[in-house]
Write a structure and sequence with these properties.
Blueprint: H1 3-11, H2 34-41, H3 46-74, H4 84-87, E1 90-93, H5 109-114, H6 116-121, E2 126-129, H7 150-162, E3 166-170, H8 184-200, E4 205-209, H9 213-229, E5 239-244, E6 259-264, H10 274-285, E7 292-296, H11 306-317, E8 321-325, H12 349-360, E9 371-372, E10 382-387, E11 392-399, E12 405-408, E13 418-423, E14 433-434, E15 436-439, E16 444-450
Parallel strand pairs: 1-2, 1-8, 2-3, 3-4, 4-5, 5-6, 6-7, 7-8
Antiparallel strand pairs: 9-10, 10-11, 11-16, 12-15, 13-14, 13-16
């Protein structure tokens, strides 16, 4: 039997199969060396493509970085939150106006304590008490018995804190006759020691009247040294209020931290003009090292005409903080009048109370934002300015002249109608809107304006 026949017979045996196609041997694997890989990557189009990709990625990264830098530079930076003393309304209560709590005919700290709720209703969160001391620098750490005791002070402070009312004490140091040559350092140390004592007793600051430049410099030096020795607590910072009744109203000495300068609002003659007030605002607000501005209405201003209303509006709408007058002749007495409720029969009571409530609920009226506007010829004596805010602003218009004045809101780019926030002609009817603003002589109007005007 031949070989072919043997193969055929064998393939036909049960359980055996003959493959139809012969399987080829697997291809041999080819590996490139490191040198060959580098050579291939650097040859042909790959080198240019790699450079193009890296260039594109670099350009994208640089563009994104540039955009981020531009956004950081151009975006408006949030202003730091104002401290309590930069947004509060202050009420000055001279010692002669302290309410009487024990019926001896003399006002005392207990009487002040009994009337804290009236301050809160205004609302006022800064109380400046008249001098409760003996009368000279050596007695500034002792309460005069006529006004109470240290225990009465602690009770007053405790109740004031419950109502978030902060108290400042008036130091009469600059009202004393002092020889500028005789031991000024000893006087300064006594003053600083008294400040440190009342700071430990929870007082939130002091008021001094600027009677002489020498005395004020001594007070400011003592205040600055106290800050170095006893750093203030954040949120409970103490403040020094300087009351200057002079025409210039300035501080030439280096001003330490947390100093308020209280100036009198011009009340008569050539000083009560729109131009004079704007110039004073620009001078005070234009100096970054100046103290925080504050305003006070002179006590001898008649209140039976429109002048009292104008000064009240300026007091509570100018940049800074108001120092409201208390005591005799004040539009806002602490003691209630049973016949007239809280008004005490004063013709300006409703004006002051309405403006205090508006200021407490309107952030633009706090702080130092101020943008004067020119609505008319300066001879018309119409004062207008915007107190800008983050969401909206307040347009203040006062006619200090002798003739009516009219303007359209569209002239200022203000969408009409605008809401009237306050109107001296309609103190009890402020929920109205205006398109055309007509201001009579001696009239003031406050309007809400959109964000962006005056900013």
């Amino acid at each position: 039997m031949g070989k072919a026949q043997e193969v055929a017979l064998t393939s036909q045996e049960p359980g055996e199969r003959l493959p139809l196609l012969a399987q080829a041997a697997p291809p041999a694997k080819i590996y490139l060396s490191q040198e060959e890989v580098v050579l291939q990557a650097g040859s042909g189009p790959w080198a240019g493509l790699r450079k193009a990709l890296f260039g594109l990625l670099g350009a994208l990264f640089g563009g994104m970085l540039l955009m981020a830098i531009l956004l950081l530079v151009t975006m408006p930076r949030p202003k730091p939150a104002l401290a309590w003393w930069q947004r509060a309304s202050f009420y000055h209560l001279p010692k002669a106006a302290f309410p009487d709590s024990d019926g001896d005919g003399q006002g005392d700290l207990g009487g002040v304590r009994d009337h804290l709720d009236q301050l809160l209703e205004l609302p006022v969160h800064g109380l400046v008490l008249g001098s409760i001391f003996g009368g000279d620098v050596a007695n500034l750490s002792h309460v005069h018995p006529a006004h109470g005791s240290l225990g009465h002070w602690q009770a007053l402070l405790r109740d004031a804190r419950k109502r978030e009312i902060r108290i400042l004490l008036e130091f009469p140091v600059c009202e004393e006759e002092m020889d500028p040559v005789a031991e000024p350092n000893q006087t300064k140390q006594l003053l600083k020691r008294a400040m440190a004592f009342w700071d430990s007793e929870g007082v939130h600051g002091f008021l001094v009247r600027k009677e002489s430049t020498h005395c004020l410099e001594m007070v400011l030096d003592a205040w600055g040294e106290l800050d170095q020795e006893i750093p203030p607590v954040r949120g409970q910072e103490r403040v020094l209020m300087v009351w200057d009744e002079s025409e210039a109203c300035n501080i030439s000495h280096k001003v330490p931290s947390r100093v308020i300068l209280t100036c009198h609002i011009p009340s008569s003659g050539k000083n009560l003009t729109s131009q004079a007030i704007v110039q004073r605002m620009e001078r005070i607000l234009g100096n970054p090292g100046a103290p925080w501005p504050s305003w006070m209405v002179p006590q001898d201003v008649p209140v039976d005409n429109n002048l009292g209303q104008m000064l009240g509006v300026l007091l509570l709408t100018l940049p800074g903080v108001p120092l409201l007058p208390g005591g005799k002749g004040s539009p806002i007495h602490l003691e209630r009048d049973p016949m007239n409720g809280n008004t005490n029969g004063h013709p300006l009571a409703n004006v002051y109370r309405s403006l205090l409530a508006l200021r407490a609920n309107s952030s633009p009226l706090r702080g130092t934002g101020f943008a004067p506007l020119t609505l008319a010829d300066p001879s018309a004596n119409v004062l207008s300015f915007i107190r800008p805010g983050s969401c909206s602003g307040v347009l203040v218009v006062l006619n200090l002249g002798s003739y009516p004045f009219l303007f359209r809101l569209e002239q200022l780019g203000i969408p009409a109608p605008a809401k009237v926030l306050f109107n001296t002609a309609l103190v009890s009817q402020t929920e109205v809107n205006m398109e055309v603003v007509k201001v009579a002589p001696g009239q003031a109007i406050l309007l809400r304006v959109p964000r962006g005007l005056g900013q």
